[in-house]
């Protein structure tokens, strides 16, 4: 779910693009964003993907089981498109742009910007509590 919807209840046109980007990065990494954890770091999957992209270590993100089945160039394309999709709403491509990115091999892609929801743990953006207790009291 896009951060605009999760935080403010707003559902912009490009919310579906954000969700697609998260799923794309989950497929490449073989890990879920909701349960992703890097020891001693407060990053979610999006933050980790961003860090590996900036550090030119993208292949660290790739699920080892994909090693022989996909080309490195295609994995890098998926990571770059995924990161473009999870930027702030105004900077995200449209879904038709995303289709073009995958269809046109010669298309020059823009450099991704930092994801809209970069960190999760220890920043208070999302609670770690998995239980909510509601008490009903009569007046």
From TrEMBL:
Residues 1-40 form the Serine-threonine/tyrosine-protein kinase catalytic domain. This is G-type lectin S-receptor-like serine/threonine-protein kinase At4g03230. The gene is LOC107429348.
């Amino acid at each position: 779910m896009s951060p605009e919807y999760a935080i403010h209840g707003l559902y912009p046109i490009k919310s579906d693009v954000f969700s697609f980007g998260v799923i794309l990065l989950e497929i490449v990494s073989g890990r879920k964003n909701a349960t992703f954890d890097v020891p001693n770091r407060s990053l979610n999957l999006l933050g980790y993907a961003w860090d590996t992209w900036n550090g030119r270590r993208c292949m660290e993100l790739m699920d080892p089981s994909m090693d022989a089945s996909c080309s490195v160039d295609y994995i890098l394309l998926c990571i770059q498109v995924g990161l473009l999709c999870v930027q702030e709403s105004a900077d995200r491509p449209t879904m038709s742009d995303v289709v073009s990115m995958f269809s046109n091999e010669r298309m020059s892609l823009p450099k991704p910007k930092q994801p809209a929801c970069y960190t999760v743990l220890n920043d208070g953006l999302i609670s770690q509590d998995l239980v909510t207790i509601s008490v009903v009291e009569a007046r």
